[in-house]
Amino acid sequence: MTGRKLLIFTDLDGTLLDHETYSYEAALPAIERLRQLDIGLVLASSKTAAEIAPLRAELGFSHCPAIVENGAGLLAPHMQAGEASGDYAKIQSALNTLPDELRSQFTGFSQMSVEDVIAMTGLTREASQLAKNRQFSEPGIFHGTSQQREMFLKAAKGAGLIAKQGGRFLTFSFGGDKAEQMQAILAKQENETISIALGDAPNDIAMLEAADIGIIIPNPAHDKIKHLAGEDNGKIIRAFKKGPEGWNLNVLKLVEGHSAVKSTKNKD
């Protein structure tokens, strides 16, 4: 990793943020170290631009782009949520073309009240309102049988929709994922860059595999990520601690190791 700058890409819920409390307090030492060393932090989440923009500012990384709505959209550096735009109405229209007996089994955020979102996520009222402010994708819950779900996904694909299963919700969009957005961001970097990606859910796998170093954060709240090929050669590692605590330990270890190597090279 000598001589190359680092860029961190991270999932939020269950990774940088605690799955239950949504707190990043346990990760503050590593976050502060990133700021001190001027290492970029790209938030990559199912969250909306309206949710991510204030969090990005609070963490001190407004100068970095952010990947929103599971990679269906991108929030440019310093861009405010209201400046982004997407195809949300077209996604609703595509879902509504699906057979009624299947469509009726899926309840998306557009059909949920703020109270419903609060009950399902534990978010505050303000945060739940921001979560409903969608532009690029429609998350929700499928209530039917596994057979109906398979039929629903097939019909959605036929309508041009892409489905992704996250830690809590099944989400539909017209495409784009965290890995694609990460690669687009890396392609714009002026200097040679080492990408480090952290995630806890199946929708993070592509990003973890595409990064130079992937870190799987354990999350007991859902099925763990299956064994990935990159684990056989050390390209992907598994944290021992969950959530922001595991995030903090692993990011600090990588950052300090990289910093020590750079310092040694400079002395030479």
Automatic annotation (TrEMBL):
Xref: Pfam families: Hydrolase_3
Keywords: Hydrolase, Magnesium, Metal-binding
GO MF annotation list: hydrolase activity
The keyword Metal-binding belongs to this UniProt entry's keyword annotation: yes
InterPro entries in the record: HAD-like_sf, HAD-SF-IIB-MPGP, HAD-SF_hydro_IIB, HAD_sf
Lineage top rank: taxon: Bacteria
Hydrolase recorded as keyword: yes
Stated name of the protein: HAD-IIB family hydrolase
Species, as recorded: Ahrensia kielensis
